[in-house]
Amino acid sequence: MSTGAPFLRIEPPLLNSACPWASTREDLQALFDSSSTGAVTTRTATLNGFEEDAKVHQVAFNAAQNTSLNSYGYSPYPLSNYIAWVKDILTSGVLGPKKPFIISITSSHPSELRTMLGMIQDLRRSIARDSFSGTSSGESQSIIGVELNTSCPNIPDKPPPAYAPLSREFLDLLKPMAEMGNEDEGLVLGLKLPPYVYRRQMIELVEAVATFANAETGRCPFRFFTCTNTLGGCVMFQDQTGSITDQDANPLALPTKYGGLAGEPLHSLALGNVMSFKEILTQHPIEEVRQIGIIGVGGVTSPEAYRRMLKAGATAVACATALGVHGIGVFNQLIGGT
Description:
Elements: E1 14-16, H1 25-33, E2 40-41, E3 59-62, E4 67-70, H2 79-91, E5 101-105, H3 110-130, H4 137-141, E6 144-149, H5 168-183, E7 188-193, H6 199-210, E8 222-227, E9 231-234, E10 259-263, H7 267-282, H8 287-290, E11 293-297, H9 303-312, E12 316-319, H10 321-326, H11 330-334
Parallel strand pairs: 1-12, 2-5, 5-6, 6-7, 7-8, 8-11, 11-12
Antiparallel strand pairs: 3-4, 4-10, 9-10
Helix pairs in contact: 1-2, 2-3, 3-5, 6-7, 7-9
């Protein structure tokens, strides 16, 4: 995958999206070791870890339809854990070019976000200094991308900020990323976006990102979009899961009633988002905005769905629900293996 910045390549163009099955070091190692993944995305981390409650934050599956509904927030592990795990994985084993990691992060506070970006920059410098003797420092530093998750639908009283892309709140979040990206051209930055339901929302998102492009050079600090995240406000009943407990107490699959929908029911909407963003980006007057890559996510549960995402305009394709249902072997199946 080439997203406008050199050396962040996802080959094959298949990876996981930020999800509960990329939470632990063991999860990340298994994803990294798979010959069918071209990169690894961490679960979205906050600075100090999200307060996860197993009685509240859950996932329900309808395996027959490769569908999931979850009430999760973010990872219970702090960003520092992911930095240590990613460094350990990347600096272990044979020296030389390695599979990229995308570290997914989030914060509603620009100052905190700046701190988190600084921690990741320290990681990139450390990796460039301590390993990869057979590569240039530019290549080693660019095996780590950063994804800002602006789209989780499950945080009470905090709607996904990317649904208001021209708002001051959203632009203030992008500012520290843009500043750091403009200072370091090797830093690959992206946004995880919610599912949009009309085109104007997507046009405004691209307009927001383009405001941070350098007026003189045309350089854009943002290199990729991950679209889409789950669709919030959805409901699943216990009788849809095949695992019925006490329907009299709660006939719903999640204790929170509502959650984020993923899997096959999201596929057509996700394809539409990918195709629309590709069209909007291609028509933009700034060249580096036109070069923004797209990681297509949503209902990628079969080789056919994987190929559809690429045909719709995705530079690379990611999945989560299929990973949760079928395990790490699903990646080999998605690229046409057995």
